[in-house]
Amino acid sequence: MIEEYKFGSITINGKKYDHDVEVLWTDEVVEWWREESHVIYLEDIEEAVELNPDTIIIGTGESGVAQVDEKAKKLIIDKGIKLIIDKTEDAVKTFNVIRDDSEEEEGEQNKVIGFFHLTC
Fold it and tell me: What integer is the mean pLDDT of 15-42?
């Protein structure tokens, strides 16, 4: 699914993106715009939480500069959604593993959503 991440770009299903992205388990990729570039607020992820995924992964940039607001963390956890926050390189790897593992399992696919900050 996600073939490559490097500072400032990410390649997903053969298409290169040079802006932050939200990636759904359905292979849908959308631009991810936030209120502030290095703080992730509840409003920045609220629509994804409403989709009731099993897991949300947030990539905080190459150096991990972006921070997730406590209200956003609380909402995700209170809804029973697994939350993984990591530097983007590691978050991409985790996203791919979870998505690939769930495709190989019989039954329902793990609904995973990834938010990836591509710089800093």
Answer: 94
Query: End-to-end alpha-carbon separation of the chain, Å?
Result: 23
Token pair 């897991």 is found at 55
Instruction: List helix spans (H) across 11-87.
Output: 42-50, 70-78
Average pLDDT over residues 58-86: 97
- When pLDDT is averaged across residues 63-72 and rounded to a whole number, the result is 97
User: Domain of 99: which CATH number?
Assistant: 3.40.1230.10
Confidence of residue 106 (pLDDT cuts 50, 70, 90): low
Count up the domains in the chain and report the number.
1
Residue with tokens 């995973």: 112
Residue span of the structural domain in which 37 resides: 2-117
Question: In the chain, how long is the greatest CA-to-CA distance?
Answer: 40
State phi, psi for 50 to the nearest 5 degrees: -65, -20
